[in-house]
């Protein structure tokens, strides 16, 4: 199984980039993982929130194939404990999911077309975090899930 994370806009903070890079490198030992950053939409000052979400969706949908399993990182999604997230990934592997694509939207969330395309939604917390922080948190949780599945000592419960 391949796993991708697709995000809107670059990560500005160097400390976040260092953390993201650290866990992306660690993930290479467990899964074929790719991180795709789509450039921010330009001239957003002239757009409504709905127009911006629509333009972001156009860019996101270009990155997804018809056979991909799409999961939106969304505040209204399912919330898992780390062990349950590991079990979720294990089920996806067992069910022969070829490409699991997680998506972090822009500052206003997702256009309805993205909800229509996605198979599910996942929330990392009931709290709100910046798009840039969520990238690091998600990639770390993905790494944690694989260490759990392998019985490695990274996760303590």
From TrEMBL:
SUPFAM superfamilies cross-referenced by the UniProt entry: alpha/beta knot
Subcellular location, record wording: Cytoplasm
GO molecular function: rRNA (pseudouridine-N3-)-methyltransferase activity
Keyword Transferase tagged: yes
GO cellular component labels: cytoplasm
Keywords attached to this entry: Cytoplasm, Methyltransferase, rRNA processing, S-adenosyl-L-methionine, Transferase
Residue positions binding S-adenosyl-L-methionine: 73, 105, 124-129
Reactions performed catalytically: pseudouridine(1915) in 23S rRNA + S-adenosyl-L-methionine = N(3)-methylpseudouridine(1915) in 23S rRNA + S-adenosyl-L-homocysteine + H(+)
EC top class, as a word: transferase
Entry keyword annotation includes DNA damage: no
Pfam families: SPOUT_MTase
InterPro entries to which the protein is assigned, alphabetical: Alpha/beta_knot_MTases, RlmH-like, tRNA_m1G_MTases_N
EC number of the protein: 2.1.1.177
Main location: cytoplasm
Assembly information from the UniProt record: Homodimer.
HAMAP family: 23SrRNA_methyltr_H
Record's function text: Specifically methylates the pseudouridine at position 1915 (m3Psi1915) in 23S rRNA.
Similarity annotation: Belongs to the RNA methyltransferase RlmH family.
Protein name, entry field: Ribosomal RNA large subunit methyltransferase H
Organism: Olivibacter domesticus
Gene: rlmH
């Amino acid at each position: 199984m391949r796993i991708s994370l697709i995000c809107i806009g670059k990560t500005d903070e160097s400390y976040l980039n260092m953390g993201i890079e650290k866990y992306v490198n660690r993930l290479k030992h467990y899964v074929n993982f790719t991180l795709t950053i789509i450039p921010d939409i330009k001239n957003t000052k002239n757009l409504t929130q709905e127009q911006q979400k629509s333009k972001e969706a156009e860019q996101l949908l270009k990155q997804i194939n018809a056979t991909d399993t799409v999961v939106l990182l969304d505040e209204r999604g399912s919330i898992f404990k780390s062990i349950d997230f590991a079990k979720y990934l294990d089920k996806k592997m067992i069910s022969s999911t070829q490409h699991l694509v997680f998506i972090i939207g822009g500052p206003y969330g997702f256009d309805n077309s993205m909800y229509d395309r996605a198979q599910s939604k996942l929330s990392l917390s009931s709290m709100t975090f910046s798009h840039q922080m969520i990238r690091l948190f998600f990639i770390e949780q993905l790494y944690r899930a694989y260490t759990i599945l392998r019985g490695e000592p990274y996760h303590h419960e």
